[in-house]
Amino acid sequence: MSVTALILNILWLALGGAIAALGWFMAAFVLMITIIGLPWARAAFDNGVYTLWPFGAKPINREILYGNEIGTGPLGFLGNIIWFVLAGWWLALGHVIAAFFLGITIIGLPFAWAHLKLAGFALWPIGRTLAHSEFRRRAY
Q: pTM of the prediction?
């Protein structure tokens, strides 16, 4: 991880990223203890990890790392549709609104960009995982 990404991640955590990630982890726990929410607990946990440390990480298709599995096939697509309808669109909208207000200032631009990345991941998370930026460059 670059020094710039490390500094931005520390600032992100200090200025609210840790609280947002804690919310995602609590949501993952609630989904995990319910039977019906269990398939989406991993997506909420991954969103929490990405929210905790957004600079220097990129979402990639899990099929690249693990091959064809249940989350990368038709069931993963169905899970994403259900996620999108019930939670994804308004979670992504919240990130886009935060990005808009952070993008008004020059200092807030990197954080606005992080919110836009988080919006894309929150919109369609099943079948995706996080990888360091360096790994993603080598994978493609």
A: 0.80
